[in-house]
Amino acid sequence: KEKDIGTFSKALYRCCSFFFSGLLIRWQTSAPRVRTLSSSNSFSQNIPSGLWKLGRLNHVAIAVPDLEKAQSLYKDVLGAQVSETVALPEHGVYTVFVELGNTKLELLHPLGDRSPIASFLQKNKTGGMHHICIEVDDIKAAMTELKKKKIRILSEEPKIGAHGKPVIFLHPKDCHGVLVELEQA
Asked: Residues 6 or more apart from 17 whose CB is under 8 A from it?
């Protein structure tokens, strides 16, 4: 019996070794490779050193036809922290911010007949992504440089945005179809 157990153990060992070595080889060849940017990459060499710098993504703005339903979705269904509604008559919108930890969503609803959100919702009845907002460290320098690069800015001067900071909007046709808001950090 001891001989049978020894033979069985050896056979089991060989079988497991074969099986696990096959798994290890498959894992090594199918495991995703992580690529990193090195300092020698040409990617970083093509970025001009300007007088201003882009910062973090501040928020993604979503136009909504029903602000209360949208607030309820993010607060009651998804469990997010949702701000109170704030009216911004100079921009023609009501805003609500949804905190996401690493950024925010800005829910936009029309305020007044001339609201840009009203015209957006006429074309997009169920709402949708309206713009992205990126922080900059010097909004005036950004405006000057962007104008030199033929990027259209939708206002002559920055306006005070929902966070109480100066903002500008860049024409979506100059930004690959995306309305971009720049906000002073």
From this structure: none
How many residues make up the chain in this entry? 185
Retrieve residue 76's tokens: 């009651």
Give exposure, 126-158, as e/b (b: 16+ Cβ within 10 Å). Answer: ebeebbbbbbbeebeebbeebeeeebebeeeeb
Residues 47-95: tens digit of each pLDDT: 455 689 999 999 999 999 999 999 999 999 999 999 999 999 989 999 9
- 90 with 155: CB under 8 angstroms? no
Q: Is residue 102 within 8 Å of 150, Cβ to Cβ?
A: no
In the Cβ-directed half-sphere of 22, how many Cα atoms lie within 13 Å? 6
Residues 6+ apart with CB under 8 A from 100: 80
Among 134, 165, 153, 160, residue whose Cα is nearest residue 61: 134
What is the model's pTM? 0.72
Residue 182: Cβ within 10 Å count: 25
Dig out the tokens for 183 from the structure.
Answer: 């906000």
